[in-house]
Here is the input.
Amino acid sequence: MAQPRTPAPALTGVVVATALPYAEDPAAPAGLRPDLDRYAEHCRWLVDSGCHGVGPNGSLGEYSSLTDTERRAVARTAVDAVGRDALVVVGAHGPGAHQARHWAELAAEDGADGVLCLPPTMYRATTAEVVHHFAEVAKAGLPVMAYNNPLDTKVDLTPEMLREIAAIDNIVAIKEFSGDIRRVLHIKEQAPGIEVIAGADDLVLEALLMGATGWFAGFPNVFPAESCRLYELARAGRLAEARALYEPLVAAFRWDSRTEFVQAIKRGMDLVGRYGGPCRPPRGALGADQLAQLDADVRRAIDHLAAHGPTTTSMSTPSSTPSSTPTCAGAGAEAGAN
Here is the structure.
């Protein structure tokens, strides 16, 4: 059995909520099976492009469309692909505390560095029920990043609620996805012992400038090196350079906060020469108007990066001998991610 790192790592830096590629297979659910070889290559490419970690089995990874066997295989694939070169923060989301704790315990057995966990996913829980949920997940022994996504779960992890959650041993961070940038400082006031992690790509610069120490991210599946550069510039307080990079990307980044974010990010991967591919139901194809707008937004980012840099790593076919020096090594050292 793989052993977690000691001491436990901080769950900061740029951790990519990984998209999951599928291969056609008539015997698999919806005729699609997780392509674990391609997924392992994708995880490795993200790390070699400078990202500080990967997050399998999040919403972007379509965890709710996977069988239990597939879900565990995806997590193990990420751990094996990344090794000890970066973080692996596994999604441990579940309808109830017993399911979420089960997935956290499996992540610990499989060598993950931490887990990302929503509150109960199919029930509008009370504060006491939410605190119990996270207390159970924390018993697995891994560092836990709570995930506030009131748009989808209908449970808002308010700064006052987080004060109670943060008192639980092993709760170390909060992925904040409410869309309210005022939350960053409010959380730091109410729960100063936990890290605030930017959860929305189209608010990442604002969150980092307000004191967030990490980014649990979607569009770095498409632009990993450039996203790490943005993180590095923001954490260093180099605002003019950060804005010059961020503003041409933010139209694409806004798709991370839309209902069709999984399809959009996979399409973005296709447009830069990676493999995004199809989604499993309930996610279907984008409409023609959506696709045209998405393509325009992503191509604007591609054209800007091609003309102005800082790197073309994300838009080229990965080499068979990846660089051993991550683009954002300096940012990782600053944030304590690696």
